[in-house]
Amino acid sequence: MAQERVQRRLAAILAADMVGYSRLMRADEEGTIERQKALRRDLIDPEIAGHGGRIVKTMGDGLLVEFPSVVDAVKCAVAVQEAMTEREATIPEDLRIRYRVGINLGDIVIEDEDIVGDGVNVAARLEGLAEPGGLCISDLVYRSAHGGPGLRFEDLGDQKLKNIPEPVRVWRWRPEDMESAKLPEVSPGATPTLPDKPSIAVLPFTNMSGDPEQEYFADGMAEDIITELSRLPWFFVIARNSSFTYKGQPVDVTKVGRELGVAYVLEGSVRKAGNRLRINAQLIDAETGNHIWAERYDREIADIFDIQDEINQAIINAVAPELVSAEQKKTRQKDPAQLSAWECVMRGRAHVWKLGREDARIARRLFEQAIALSPGSGLGASDLALVHFLDAFYGWSRSREQSFKDMVKTAENAVAIDDTDPMALTILSWAYNFAYQWDEALATIDRAIALSPNFAPAIGLRGAILACADEPDLAIATVREAIRLSPRDGFMPYWLMGLFWAYHSIQDYEQAVLTAQRAVRVAPDNPTFRRQLLVANHMLGRKAEAAAALADYLALDPKATVDDSRIIPSRNKQHLDRYIQILIDAGVPEKSA
């Protein structure tokens, strides 16, 4: 009998426990039970439901709750703690009911109606660190919730938690800091300041069907998109409770942008007719009202939840690169000296993705400027590793060996700053690949995908690494998945570089030609793809095409020799030797002129 597949998902987990439960029961058993029931009925359970939480189980004096949104979990915890402090104020100090709360964001395993796993265990340990009436959250929660909804948290540093192998950085909120901890409120009519990074509000999708049952589906679409975008640390995403205040209202997108302090708004609609479902989504620049992206999805209704997951994934993977692209376009209009750290990164990525020598030089300057503007934040650090990669791979620096070392060191430093950033982990995995550490590369990129399962750059580079690690069939399938997820991604040239190697490994040179041609269109100033086009055409006996590719290759890299290709990180030496021999046979110089 086939083994049943384990169900997993990423969730915000809240663990709460009553302080001094045994003491309170000894002092007044009946009174404690009645007050606890009243608190649950009138305060705790309604707040949990209102913030989208699900009570997984109760443990006498404690609760375990699952939330789809980190921000909602934190808001719920603080709302309950504040209300309980006020409600219990007239009770003698030694008889007051107070809770400790811990919140973690992590992978959970579904067992019937229960949830288990390290994500749950960490939440329980965090609860034990909280003060009575207070809250402790993991660093991953802190970052995902952008520091907490209108609150300041105290950094407790790395804490060794019982039965948890790795230390966890912990942030604490205490009830006595309630008033002083609140951030200044925005005065009525004032426009909130835009964050440095791309900011977006996802409005509730409009139900166009006239069918009340589709209301839940439409709301679920928007909620899931909010949750998925919130997992990407380089976006600022307005929480559901704020964006859903516009539900059922005629919307002026520019007004929404001003009121919520966001640069972009995503809105959509759901229409059901018979057994067909149509979903429209559009991304809008909140300042100008211009449409940046729009798409329509038509589906036959089979499993409604499968459709919801599929379309949510498609929207996320379309919107994320469009947001980055829009930000890059905005930075082009600014004086480089006036760019913020985030804007430097955005402009730098637009250059580094072109894989050209002059673009790499410009990108280096921008990433170094970002690091100088925001030291210790990680902005620009992992991106700078890509510049070191280009310098090493193409021999643009004085020492290839040193540039490869700098690539690994810079990427490792970026991950040390923030080991929950999927981009930093993705680039570190690419660095390990070119250090011939394929197992470390795959393990690192798997961590990135675990943090953000639909993060196309990680999926595509995983395919490229698999090609180098002598897994061509799996590599081809993985890169194709990434292209399907994000057909306009900035990392496309890197994916195609690996996809070509996979086709070369299995000697499918027809597909290799098509891949190299596509790569040339994406990055016309990059010599690698001309070299690949040369190899594939030579193997197919297309002499004229091979000669043209050779001429283009040497024009882009006049000092190119066969030795330049010996640094390709191929785990299978035979594949690399065959590639080298083809270059020699095709007329690539063996030594510099």
Describe this structure in words.
This protein has 593 residues and is of the alpha/beta class. It folds into four domains: 175 residues, 2-Layer Sandwich (Alpha-Beta Plaits), CATH 3.30.70; 132 residues, Rossmann fold (3-Layer(aba) Sandwich), CATH 3.40.50.10610; 85 residues, no CATH class; 143 residues, Serine Threonine Protein Phosphatase 5, Tetratricopeptide repeat (Alpha Horseshoe). It is built from 23 helices and 14 strands. The strands form two sheets. Strands 1, 2, 3, 4, 5, 6, 7 and 8 form an eight-stranded mixed sheet that branches. Strands 9, 10, 11, 12, 13 and 14 form a six-stranded mixed sheet that branches. Strand 7 and strand 8 form a beta hairpin. Helix 13 packs parallel to helix 15, helix 19 runs antiparallel to helix 20 and helix 21 packs antiparallel against helix 22. The longest helix has 29 residues. It is elongated and about 90 Å long. The chain starts with 6 loop residues before the first strand and ends in a 7-residue tail after the last helix. GO terms for molecular function: adenylate cyclase activity. This is Adenylate/guanylate cyclase domain-containing protein.
